[in-house]
Write a structure and sequence with these properties.
Largest sheet of chain A: none
Number of helices of chain B: 14
Oligomer: heterodimer
Largest interface: A-B, 61 and 84 residues
Structural class of chain B: alpha/beta
Order of helices and strands of chain B: HHHHHHEHHEHEHEEHEHHHEE
Helix content of chain B: 40-55%
Structural class of chain A: mainly alpha
Largest sheet of chain B: 8 strands, mixed
Strand content of chain A: under 5%
Shape of chain B: globular
Helix content of chain A: 40-55%
Strand content of chain B: 5-15%
Number of strands of chain A: 0
Order of helices and strands of chain A: HHH
Shape of chain A: flat
Radius of gyration of chain A: 25 Å
Number of helices of chain A: 3
Strand order of the largest sheet of chain B: 1-4-3-2-5-6-8-7
Distance between the termini of chain B: 57 Å
Distance between the termini of chain A: 58 Å
Protein backbone atom coordinates (compact mmCIF):
# COMPACT_ATOMS: atom_id res chain seq x y z
CA UNK A 1 0.00 0.00 0.00
CA UNK A 2 1.10 3.52 -0.72
CA UNK A 3 1.95 5.57 2.32
CA UNK A 4 1.24 8.77 0.44
CA UNK A 5 -1.39 11.16 1.75
CA UNK A 6 -2.69 13.31 -1.07
CA UNK A 7 -2.73 16.97 -0.09
CA UNK A 8 -5.70 19.13 -0.96
CA UNK A 9 -5.62 22.87 -1.47
CA UNK A 10 -7.49 25.19 0.82
CA UNK A 11 -10.18 26.44 -1.56
CA UNK A 12 -11.43 28.97 1.00
CA UNK A 13 -15.01 28.25 0.00
CA UNK A 14 -14.31 28.79 -3.69
CA UNK A 15 -15.69 26.46 -6.32
CA UNK A 16 -13.90 23.13 -6.58
CA UNK A 17 -14.29 20.65 -9.45
CA UNK A 18 -11.85 17.86 -8.47
CA UNK A 19 -13.10 14.28 -8.07
CA UNK A 20 -11.93 11.16 -6.23
CA UNK A 21 -8.91 9.46 -7.77
CA UNK A 22 -6.92 6.22 -7.48
CA UNK A 23 -3.62 6.91 -5.65
CA UNK A 24 -0.50 5.52 -7.28
CA UNK A 25 2.15 3.64 -5.33
CA UNK A 26 5.15 5.44 -6.80
CA UNK A 27 6.66 6.18 -3.39
CA UNK A 28 7.46 2.46 -3.11
CA UNK A 29 9.83 2.47 -6.09
CA UNK A 30 13.53 1.94 -5.76
CA UNK A 31 16.05 1.14 -8.46
CA UNK A 32 19.44 0.91 -6.79
CA UNK A 33 20.75 -1.66 -4.33
CA UNK A 34 19.32 -0.04 -1.26
CA UNK A 35 16.24 2.22 -1.07
CA UNK A 36 18.24 4.64 1.06
CA UNK A 37 20.69 5.18 -1.83
CA UNK A 38 17.70 6.06 -4.01
CA UNK A 39 16.54 8.51 -1.36
CA UNK A 40 20.01 10.06 -1.13
CA UNK A 41 19.98 10.58 -4.90
CA UNK A 42 16.61 12.33 -4.73
CA UNK A 43 17.79 14.46 -1.80
CA UNK A 44 20.92 15.37 -3.78
CA UNK A 45 18.77 16.49 -6.71
CA UNK A 46 16.48 18.54 -4.46
CA UNK A 47 19.53 20.16 -2.88
CA UNK A 48 21.06 20.90 -6.28
CA UNK A 49 17.81 22.49 -7.50
CA UNK A 50 17.88 24.82 -4.52
CA UNK A 51 21.56 25.65 -5.06
CA UNK A 52 20.83 26.51 -8.70
CA UNK A 53 17.86 28.62 -7.60
CA UNK A 54 20.06 30.54 -5.14
CA UNK A 55 22.78 30.95 -7.79
CA UNK A 56 20.28 32.53 -10.16
CA UNK A 57 19.05 34.87 -7.44
CA UNK A 58 22.59 35.95 -6.53
CA UNK A 59 23.47 36.51 -10.22
CA UNK A 60 20.31 38.56 -10.77
CA UNK A 61 20.93 40.60 -7.63
CA UNK A 62 24.51 41.37 -8.69
CA UNK A 63 23.42 42.34 -12.18
CA UNK A 64 20.73 44.70 -10.90
CA UNK A 65 23.09 46.23 -8.36
CA UNK A 66 25.61 46.93 -11.09
CA UNK A 67 22.93 48.56 -13.22
CA UNK A 68 21.01 50.50 -10.60
CA UNK A 69 23.13 50.71 -7.45
CA UNK A 70 20.32 49.38 -5.30
CA UNK A 71 17.86 46.55 -5.57
CA UNK A 72 14.48 45.47 -4.20
CA UNK A 73 12.91 42.02 -3.96
CA UNK A 74 10.35 43.04 -6.56
CA UNK A 75 13.10 44.04 -9.01
CA UNK A 76 14.69 40.61 -8.59
CA UNK A 77 11.43 38.72 -8.95
CA UNK A 78 10.32 40.61 -12.04
CA UNK A 79 13.61 40.85 -13.89
CA UNK A 80 13.43 39.33 -17.37
CA UNK A 81 16.83 38.32 -18.75
CA UNK A 82 17.68 39.37 -22.29
CA UNK A 83 18.08 36.74 -25.00
CA UNK A 84 21.87 36.89 -24.56
CA UNK A 85 21.55 36.48 -20.80
CA UNK A 86 19.15 33.58 -21.25
CA UNK A 87 21.59 31.81 -23.54
CA UNK A 88 24.36 32.30 -20.99
CA UNK A 89 22.14 31.05 -18.14
CA UNK A 90 21.29 27.94 -20.13
CA UNK A 91 24.98 27.19 -20.74
CA UNK A 92 25.75 27.63 -17.04
CA UNK A 93 22.82 25.42 -16.08
CA UNK A 94 23.86 22.64 -18.45
CA UNK A 95 27.43 22.76 -17.09
CA UNK A 96 26.14 22.68 -13.51
CA UNK A 97 23.87 19.70 -14.26
CA UNK A 98 26.69 17.83 -16.03
CA UNK A 99 29.08 18.44 -13.12
CA UNK A 100 26.59 16.92 -10.69
CA UNK A 101 25.41 13.94 -12.72
CA UNK A 102 28.39 12.83 -14.80
CA UNK A 103 29.78 10.74 -11.92
CA UNK A 104 26.71 8.55 -12.31
CA UNK A 105 27.93 7.61 -15.79
CA UNK A 106 30.58 5.37 -14.24
CA UNK A 107 29.56 1.79 -14.67
CA UNK A 108 31.59 0.66 -11.65
CA UNK A 109 31.74 -2.92 -12.83
CA UNK A 110 35.15 -3.77 -11.33
CA UNK A 111 35.28 -3.97 -7.58
CA UNK A 112 38.41 -2.38 -6.08
CA UNK A 113 39.61 -5.62 -4.49
CA UNK A 114 39.43 -7.54 -7.75
CA UNK A 115 42.15 -5.43 -9.40
CA UNK A 116 45.28 -5.50 -7.27
CA UNK A 117 47.42 -3.42 -9.68
CA UNK A 118 46.52 -0.52 -11.93
CA UNK A 119 46.56 -1.13 -15.71
CA UNK A 120 50.05 -1.66 -17.15
CA UNK A 121 51.68 0.95 -19.36
CA UNK A 122 52.85 -1.92 -21.57
CA UNK A 123 50.76 -1.77 -24.77
CA UNK A 124 50.30 -5.50 -24.76
CA UNK A 125 48.71 -5.14 -21.35
CA UNK A 126 46.38 -2.31 -22.32
CA UNK A 127 42.99 -2.81 -20.80
CA UNK A 128 44.21 -5.46 -18.39
CA UNK A 129 42.66 -4.42 -15.13
CA UNK A 130 42.14 -7.86 -13.69
CA UNK A 131 45.58 -8.65 -12.35
CA UNK A 132 49.25 -7.79 -12.22
CA UNK A 133 51.11 -7.37 -15.51
CA UNK A 134 52.94 -10.51 -16.62
CA UNK A 135 56.39 -8.88 -16.47
CA UNK A 136 56.08 -7.86 -12.86
CA UNK B 1 19.66 44.17 -23.40
CA UNK B 2 16.30 44.67 -21.85
CA UNK B 3 16.55 47.71 -19.59
CA UNK B 4 12.95 47.85 -18.45
CA UNK B 5 12.38 46.39 -15.02
CA UNK B 6 8.73 45.54 -15.59
CA UNK B 7 8.23 44.80 -19.25
CA UNK B 8 5.16 42.86 -20.36
CA UNK B 9 6.98 41.21 -23.18
CA UNK B 10 10.42 41.30 -24.66
CA UNK B 11 9.50 40.66 -28.26
CA UNK B 12 13.06 40.74 -29.53
CA UNK B 13 14.09 37.92 -27.18
CA UNK B 14 10.93 36.02 -28.04
CA UNK B 15 11.80 36.26 -31.74
CA UNK B 16 15.38 35.11 -31.13
CA UNK B 17 14.25 32.20 -29.01
CA UNK B 18 11.60 31.19 -31.49
CA UNK B 19 14.10 31.26 -34.33
CA UNK B 20 16.55 29.17 -32.31
CA UNK B 21 13.84 26.66 -31.46
CA UNK B 22 12.69 26.46 -35.06
CA UNK B 23 16.23 25.81 -36.20
CA UNK B 24 16.46 22.85 -33.82
CA UNK B 25 13.76 21.03 -35.71
CA UNK B 26 15.75 21.09 -38.96
CA UNK B 27 12.81 22.56 -40.84
CA UNK B 28 13.38 24.33 -44.12
CA UNK B 29 13.68 28.10 -44.02
CA UNK B 30 10.12 28.69 -45.22
CA UNK B 31 8.68 26.46 -42.50
CA UNK B 32 10.92 28.15 -39.93
CA UNK B 33 9.76 31.60 -40.97
CA UNK B 34 6.14 30.45 -40.82
CA UNK B 35 6.59 29.04 -37.35
CA UNK B 36 8.29 32.16 -36.06
CA UNK B 37 5.48 34.25 -37.52
CA UNK B 38 2.91 32.03 -35.80
CA UNK B 39 4.69 32.31 -32.47
CA UNK B 40 4.70 36.08 -32.72
CA UNK B 41 1.01 36.14 -33.64
CA UNK B 42 0.32 33.93 -30.66
CA UNK B 43 2.23 36.24 -28.33
CA UNK B 44 0.25 39.19 -29.68
CA UNK B 45 -3.06 37.42 -29.23
CA UNK B 46 -2.85 36.30 -25.61
CA UNK B 47 -4.27 38.63 -22.97
CA UNK B 48 -2.34 38.98 -19.71
CA UNK B 49 -3.78 36.89 -16.92
CA UNK B 50 -4.23 37.91 -13.32
CA UNK B 51 -1.56 35.51 -12.15
CA UNK B 52 0.77 36.51 -14.97
CA UNK B 53 2.51 38.78 -12.47
CA UNK B 54 6.10 38.56 -13.65
CA UNK B 55 5.76 39.36 -17.33
CA UNK B 56 6.38 36.75 -19.97
CA UNK B 57 9.54 35.02 -20.96
CA UNK B 58 9.16 32.78 -23.98
CA UNK B 59 6.57 30.71 -22.21
CA UNK B 60 2.86 31.33 -22.18
CA UNK B 61 2.77 32.05 -18.46
CA UNK B 62 5.86 32.78 -16.41
CA UNK B 63 5.85 31.01 -13.05
CA UNK B 64 4.49 33.27 -10.30
CA UNK B 65 7.75 33.38 -8.36
CA UNK B 66 11.43 33.16 -9.16
CA UNK B 67 12.02 30.12 -6.98
CA UNK B 68 9.54 28.02 -8.99
CA UNK B 69 11.00 29.25 -12.25
CA UNK B 70 14.62 28.58 -11.34
CA UNK B 71 14.01 25.19 -9.73
CA UNK B 72 11.87 24.26 -12.72
CA UNK B 73 14.71 25.36 -14.98
CA UNK B 74 17.05 23.01 -13.13
CA UNK B 75 14.62 20.09 -13.44
CA UNK B 76 14.27 20.76 -17.17
CA UNK B 77 18.08 20.67 -17.42
CA UNK B 78 18.21 17.37 -15.54
CA UNK B 79 15.60 15.90 -17.88
CA UNK B 80 17.54 17.00 -20.95
CA UNK B 81 20.84 15.65 -19.59
CA UNK B 82 19.32 12.25 -18.87
CA UNK B 83 17.77 12.06 -22.31
CA UNK B 84 20.82 13.25 -24.23
CA UNK B 85 23.57 11.62 -22.18
CA UNK B 86 22.55 8.94 -19.71
CA UNK B 87 19.96 7.22 -21.93
CA UNK B 88 22.48 6.92 -24.76
CA UNK B 89 25.03 5.36 -22.40
CA UNK B 90 22.32 3.03 -21.08
CA UNK B 91 21.46 1.86 -24.60
CA UNK B 92 25.13 0.95 -25.15
CA UNK B 93 25.25 -0.80 -21.77
CA UNK B 94 22.15 -2.82 -22.63
CA UNK B 95 23.94 -4.26 -25.67
CA UNK B 96 27.02 -5.00 -23.56
CA UNK B 97 24.96 -6.71 -20.86
CA UNK B 98 23.15 -8.92 -23.37
CA UNK B 99 26.48 -9.80 -25.07
CA UNK B 100 28.08 -10.64 -21.73
CA UNK B 101 25.16 -12.90 -20.87
CA UNK B 102 25.14 -14.46 -24.32
CA UNK B 103 21.54 -13.47 -24.92
CA UNK B 104 20.31 -12.44 -28.35
CA UNK B 105 18.25 -9.24 -28.46
CA UNK B 106 15.20 -11.03 -29.83
CA UNK B 107 12.25 -8.76 -30.72
CA UNK B 108 9.99 -11.45 -29.27
CA UNK B 109 11.69 -11.31 -25.86
CA UNK B 110 9.08 -10.65 -23.16
CA UNK B 111 9.04 -7.45 -21.10
CA UNK B 112 9.64 -9.50 -17.97
CA UNK B 113 12.77 -11.11 -19.42
CA UNK B 114 14.13 -7.78 -20.69
CA UNK B 115 13.63 -6.18 -17.28
CA UNK B 116 15.21 -9.08 -15.37
CA UNK B 117 18.25 -9.02 -17.68
CA UNK B 118 18.85 -5.27 -17.48
CA UNK B 119 17.56 -3.91 -14.17
CA UNK B 120 20.70 -4.71 -12.15
CA UNK B 121 23.03 -2.76 -14.42
CA UNK B 122 23.98 0.43 -12.53
CA UNK B 123 23.68 2.82 -15.47
CA UNK B 124 20.40 1.36 -16.70
CA UNK B 125 19.05 1.38 -13.14
CA UNK B 126 20.12 5.01 -12.85
CA UNK B 127 17.90 5.98 -15.81
CA UNK B 128 14.91 4.73 -13.82
CA UNK B 129 16.12 6.51 -10.71
CA UNK B 130 16.57 9.82 -12.56
CA UNK B 131 13.20 9.63 -14.31
CA UNK B 132 11.45 8.89 -11.03
CA UNK B 133 13.29 11.60 -9.09
CA UNK B 134 12.55 14.15 -11.81
CA UNK B 135 8.83 13.44 -11.82
CA UNK B 136 8.59 13.40 -8.03
CA UNK B 137 10.45 16.63 -7.36
CA UNK B 138 8.88 18.49 -10.27
CA UNK B 139 5.29 17.58 -9.40
CA UNK B 140 5.84 17.97 -5.64
CA UNK B 141 7.05 21.51 -6.27
CA UNK B 142 4.22 22.39 -8.64
CA UNK B 143 1.47 20.99 -6.42
CA UNK B 144 2.89 22.59 -3.29
CA UNK B 145 3.20 26.01 -4.92
CA UNK B 146 -0.23 25.98 -6.60
CA UNK B 147 -1.86 24.83 -3.36
CA UNK B 148 -0.03 27.54 -1.44
CA UNK B 149 -1.42 30.16 -3.83
CA UNK B 150 -4.79 28.41 -4.23
CA UNK B 151 -6.98 31.41 -3.54
CA UNK B 152 -5.73 33.77 -6.27
CA UNK B 153 -5.37 30.94 -8.80
CA UNK B 154 -8.91 29.69 -8.11
CA UNK B 155 -10.21 33.26 -8.30
CA UNK B 156 -8.54 33.56 -11.70
CA UNK B 157 -10.30 30.38 -12.88
CA UNK B 158 -13.65 31.60 -11.52
CA UNK B 159 -13.30 34.77 -13.56
CA UNK B 160 -12.56 32.70 -16.66
CA UNK B 161 -15.58 30.43 -15.92
CA UNK B 162 -17.75 33.53 -16.06
CA UNK B 163 -16.27 34.67 -19.38
CA UNK B 164 -18.13 32.99 -22.24
CA UNK B 165 -19.74 30.45 -19.86
CA UNK B 166 -21.62 29.05 -22.84
CA UNK B 167 -18.34 27.57 -24.05
CA UNK B 168 -17.67 25.59 -20.84
CA UNK B 169 -19.62 22.47 -19.87
CA UNK B 170 -18.76 20.81 -16.54
CA UNK B 171 -20.69 17.67 -15.63
CA UNK B 172 -19.55 17.26 -12.04
CA UNK B 173 -22.13 14.58 -11.23
CA UNK B 174 -21.25 12.34 -14.16
CA UNK B 175 -19.85 8.85 -13.59
CA UNK B 176 -16.07 8.88 -13.83
CA UNK B 177 -14.79 5.45 -14.91
CA UNK B 178 -12.17 4.05 -12.57
CA UNK B 179 -9.57 3.72 -15.32
CA UNK B 180 -9.60 7.47 -15.96
CA UNK B 181 -8.96 8.35 -12.30
CA UNK B 182 -5.41 6.96 -11.97
CA UNK B 183 -2.42 9.20 -11.33
CA UNK B 184 -1.21 8.81 -14.92
CA UNK B 185 2.44 9.70 -15.51
CA UNK B 186 2.82 10.34 -11.77
CA UNK B 187 0.83 13.58 -11.83
CA UNK B 188 -0.59 14.10 -8.34
CA UNK B 189 -4.32 13.45 -8.42
CA UNK B 190 -4.19 12.50 -12.11
CA UNK B 191 -6.45 14.36 -14.53
CA UNK B 192 -9.51 14.38 -12.28
CA UNK B 193 -8.31 14.65 -8.67
CA UNK B 194 -6.58 17.99 -8.13
CA UNK B 195 -8.00 21.48 -8.70
CA UNK B 196 -4.77 22.41 -10.43
CA UNK B 197 -4.44 19.38 -12.72
CA UNK B 198 -4.47 21.67 -15.77
CA UNK B 199 -1.83 23.98 -14.32
CA UNK B 200 0.37 21.03 -13.32
CA UNK B 201 -0.03 19.34 -16.70
CA UNK B 202 0.90 22.50 -18.60
CA UNK B 203 3.90 23.34 -16.43
CA UNK B 204 4.89 19.71 -15.94
CA UNK B 205 5.10 18.99 -19.66
CA UNK B 206 7.05 22.22 -20.15
CA UNK B 207 9.64 20.96 -17.67
CA UNK B 208 9.74 17.39 -18.92
CA UNK B 209 8.50 15.46 -21.90
CA UNK B 210 7.80 18.57 -24.00
CA UNK B 211 10.76 20.59 -22.85
CA UNK B 212 11.22 23.45 -25.33
CA UNK B 213 8.44 22.34 -27.69
CA UNK B 214 5.37 23.02 -25.55
CA UNK B 215 5.39 26.76 -25.06
CA UNK B 216 3.09 28.69 -27.35
CA UNK B 217 1.47 25.34 -28.27
CA UNK B 218 4.26 24.91 -30.78
CA UNK B 219 3.98 21.14 -31.16
CA UNK B 220 0.19 21.31 -31.43
CA UNK B 221 0.32 24.03 -34.06
CA UNK B 222 2.68 21.82 -36.05
CA UNK B 223 0.27 18.89 -35.77
CA UNK B 224 -2.66 21.07 -36.81
CA UNK B 225 -0.73 22.44 -39.77
CA UNK B 226 0.13 18.92 -40.95
CA UNK B 227 -3.28 17.36 -40.31
CA UNK B 228 -5.27 16.09 -43.27
CA UNK B 229 -8.76 17.35 -44.10
CA UNK B 230 -11.66 15.63 -45.87
CA UNK B 231 -11.21 15.24 -49.63
CA UNK B 232 -14.16 17.55 -50.33
CA UNK B 233 -12.49 20.29 -48.26
CA UNK B 234 -15.59 20.86 -46.10
CA UNK B 235 -14.62 21.46 -42.46
CA UNK B 236 -17.58 22.75 -40.47
CA UNK B 237 -17.16 20.91 -37.17
CA UNK B 238 -14.07 19.55 -35.40
CA UNK B 239 -13.83 17.45 -32.24
CA UNK B 240 -10.67 16.94 -30.17
CA UNK B 241 -10.97 13.99 -27.77
CA UNK B 242 -8.92 13.72 -24.58
CA UNK B 243 -8.28 17.40 -25.15
CA UNK B 244 -6.39 17.89 -21.88
CA UNK B 245 -5.62 21.64 -21.69
CA UNK B 246 -7.02 22.23 -25.16
CA UNK B 247 -3.82 22.87 -27.08
CA UNK B 248 -4.73 20.77 -30.14
CA UNK B 249 -8.32 22.08 -30.16
CA UNK B 250 -7.29 25.74 -30.14
CA UNK B 251 -4.63 25.03 -32.77
CA UNK B 252 -7.27 23.47 -35.05
CA UNK B 253 -9.55 26.48 -34.50
CA UNK B 254 -6.73 28.76 -35.55
CA UNK B 255 -6.28 26.67 -38.70
CA UNK B 256 -10.04 26.58 -39.41
CA UNK B 257 -11.42 29.85 -37.95
CA UNK B 258 -14.89 29.31 -39.43
CA UNK B 259 -15.34 25.81 -37.98
CA UNK B 260 -17.17 24.97 -34.74
CA UNK B 261 -14.55 23.30 -32.55
CA UNK B 262 -15.13 21.13 -29.47
CA UNK B 263 -12.60 19.75 -26.99
CA UNK B 264 -13.73 17.05 -24.54
CA UNK B 265 -11.98 15.47 -21.56
CA UNK B 266 -13.06 13.51 -18.49
CA UNK B 267 -11.01 15.72 -16.15
CA UNK B 268 -13.04 18.70 -14.96
CA UNK B 269 -9.91 20.61 -13.83
CA UNK B 270 -8.38 20.02 -17.27
CA UNK B 271 -11.46 21.26 -19.13
CA UNK B 272 -11.68 24.29 -16.87
CA UNK B 273 -8.04 25.20 -17.51
CA UNK B 274 -8.48 24.61 -21.26
CA UNK B 275 -11.40 27.05 -21.27
CA UNK B 276 -9.40 29.66 -19.35
CA UNK B 277 -6.47 29.28 -21.73
CA UNK B 278 -8.69 29.59 -24.81
CA UNK B 279 -10.46 32.64 -23.37
CA UNK B 280 -7.08 34.28 -22.73
CA UNK B 281 -6.05 33.52 -26.29
CA UNK B 282 -9.30 34.89 -27.70
CA UNK B 283 -9.91 31.59 -29.50
CA UNK B 284 -13.52 30.38 -29.62
CA UNK B 285 -13.57 26.69 -28.68
CA UNK B 286 -16.25 24.80 -26.72
CA UNK B 287 -14.88 22.64 -23.93
CA UNK B 288 -16.93 19.92 -22.23
CA UNK B 289 -16.36 17.33 -19.51
CA UNK B 290 -17.37 14.23 -21.43
CA UNK B 291 -16.07 10.75 -22.17
CA UNK B 292 -14.48 9.99 -25.54
CA UNK B 293 -16.32 6.65 -25.68
CA UNK B 294 -19.67 8.37 -25.04
CA UNK B 295 -19.47 11.85 -26.57
CA UNK B 296 -23.24 12.54 -26.67
CA UNK B 297 -22.88 14.10 -30.13
CA UNK B 298 -25.24 13.14 -32.99
CA UNK B 299 -24.30 10.62 -35.70
CA UNK B 300 -22.13 11.95 -38.54
CA UNK B 301 -21.75 15.29 -36.76
CA UNK B 302 -18.06 16.02 -37.31
CA UNK B 303 -15.79 16.51 -40.33
CA UNK B 304 -12.54 16.01 -38.40
CA UNK B 305 -11.75 14.28 -35.09
CA UNK B 306 -8.30 14.68 -33.54
CA UNK B 307 -6.57 13.09 -30.58
CA UNK B 308 -3.07 13.50 -29.18
CA UNK B 309 -1.57 11.02 -26.72
CA UNK B 310 -4.97 9.78 -25.57
CA UNK B 311 -4.93 6.10 -26.51
CA UNK B 312 -1.94 4.99 -24.43
CA UNK B 313 -3.78 6.33 -21.38
CA UNK B 314 -6.96 4.27 -21.77
CA UNK B 315 -7.75 0.58 -21.40
CA UNK B 316 -7.78 -1.83 -24.32
CA UNK B 317 -11.58 -1.97 -24.18
CA UNK B 318 -11.85 1.82 -24.01
CA UNK B 319 -9.59 2.08 -27.08
CA UNK B 320 -12.00 -0.09 -29.07
CA UNK B 321 -15.04 1.76 -27.73
CA UNK B 322 -13.53 5.14 -28.57
CA UNK B 323 -12.62 4.10 -32.11
CA UNK B 324 -16.21 2.92 -32.68
CA UNK B 325 -17.61 6.13 -31.19
CA UNK B 326 -15.45 8.13 -33.60
CA UNK B 327 -16.78 6.04 -36.48
CA UNK B 328 -20.27 7.01 -35.32
CA UNK B 329 -19.74 10.76 -34.92
CA UNK B 330 -17.72 11.28 -38.12
CA UNK B 331 -19.56 11.86 -41.38
CA UNK B 332 -18.69 9.74 -44.45
CA UNK B 333 -15.39 11.08 -45.78
CA UNK B 334 -14.59 12.57 -42.34
CA UNK B 335 -11.02 12.30 -41.04
CA UNK B 336 -9.85 10.82 -37.73
CA UNK B 337 -6.32 11.94 -36.95
CA UNK B 338 -4.86 10.11 -33.92
CA UNK B 339 -1.33 10.84 -32.75
CA UNK B 340 0.18 8.64 -30.08
CA UNK B 341 3.34 6.98 -28.88
CA UNK B 342 5.01 4.41 -31.04
CA UNK B 343 3.84 1.01 -29.80
CA UNK B 344 6.44 -0.97 -31.68
CA UNK B 345 8.80 -2.85 -29.36
CA UNK B 346 12.20 -3.37 -30.91
CA UNK B 347 14.98 -3.84 -28.36
CA UNK B 348 15.33 -5.16 -24.82
CA UNK B 349 16.40 -1.69 -23.69
CA UNK B 350 13.32 -0.22 -25.34
CA UNK B 351 11.21 -2.71 -23.39
CA UNK B 352 12.96 -1.78 -20.15
CA UNK B 353 12.19 1.94 -20.61
CA UNK B 354 8.59 1.20 -21.55
CA UNK B 355 8.25 -1.07 -18.52
CA UNK B 356 9.59 1.75 -16.36
CA UNK B 357 6.98 4.11 -17.81
CA UNK B 358 4.24 1.56 -17.23
CA UNK B 359 5.16 0.53 -13.71
CA UNK B 360 6.80 3.52 -12.07
CA UNK B 361 5.75 6.49 -14.14
CA UNK B 362 2.24 5.07 -13.78
CA UNK B 363 1.30 4.92 -17.40
CA UNK B 364 -1.07 2.30 -16.03
CA UNK B 365 -2.60 1.37 -19.42
CA UNK B 366 0.65 1.12 -21.34
CA UNK B 367 0.42 -2.68 -21.55
CA UNK B 368 -3.08 -2.32 -22.96
CA UNK B 369 -1.84 0.15 -25.56
CA UNK B 370 0.80 -2.33 -26.64
CA UNK B 371 -1.89 -5.00 -27.00
CA UNK B 372 -4.06 -2.95 -29.31
CA UNK B 373 -3.72 -3.41 -33.07
CA UNK B 374 -4.63 0.22 -33.54
CA UNK B 375 -4.91 0.39 -37.36
CA UNK B 376 -6.64 -3.03 -37.32
CA UNK B 377 -9.27 -1.78 -34.87
CA UNK B 378 -9.80 1.31 -37.00
CA UNK B 379 -10.39 -0.84 -40.08
CA UNK B 380 -12.85 -3.03 -38.17
CA UNK B 381 -14.82 0.11 -37.27
CA UNK B 382 -15.10 1.05 -40.95
CA UNK B 383 -12.15 3.38 -41.43
CA UNK B 384 -9.70 3.37 -44.30
CA UNK B 385 -6.38 3.77 -42.53
CA UNK B 386 -3.27 5.67 -43.52
CA UNK B 387 -0.27 6.05 -41.26
CA UNK B 388 2.38 8.64 -41.64
CA UNK B 389 5.19 10.01 -39.54
CA UNK B 390 6.10 13.59 -38.92
CA UNK B 391 3.04 15.35 -37.63
CA UNK B 392 4.72 15.96 -34.29
CA UNK B 393 6.87 14.03 -31.86
CA UNK B 394 4.97 10.80 -32.35
CA UNK B 395 3.51 8.67 -35.14
CA UNK B 396 0.17 9.72 -36.50
CA UNK B 397 -2.58 7.39 -37.66
CA UNK B 398 -4.94 9.12 -40.03
CA UNK B 399 -8.13 7.29 -40.94
CA UNK B 400 -10.87 8.23 -43.37
CA UNK B 401 -14.47 7.29 -42.56
CA UNK B 402 -15.83 5.22 -45.43
Amino acid sequence: MSTKVQPKPDTGGRKGVAAEFVPADYDRAYFLKDPMIDSIFTSLTALAANVWSLQRRVDTTELLLEKHGSVTREMIEKYIPSAEEQASIQKQRDAFVAEIYEPFMLSGDINYASSFHPPSLDRSEAGNTKGPAAKR
Amino acid sequence: MNDSLFPNMNRRSLFTSAAAMASLTMMDSHAQAKEVEELLQYAESVSPRTMDVRGRIRKYVRFPNMKMETKGDFYAGVYAWRLQTLEKAAAVRAVEVLNAKGVEDDPDMSWEEAVSLLEADPIIAMTGRMRHTHQKLKYDMLQKEYHKMADPFLAEMERADATHPERLELNLDMHIPEYTAHEIHSMPGGYVGDEFAGHMYHAGTDLGAYVDVNFHDRIHMTMARNSLEPADGKVRRILDIGTSIGQYATSMKRKYPDAEVWGIDIGAPMVRYAHMKAVDMGVEVNFAQRLAEDTKFPDGHFDIVTSNLLFHEVTEQASRDIIHEMARVLRPGGVFSATDQNNDMETAHNKFTRWYNYRWNHEDWYLDWHQVDFPGEMRKAGFKVEKFEGSGLHPNYTAIMT
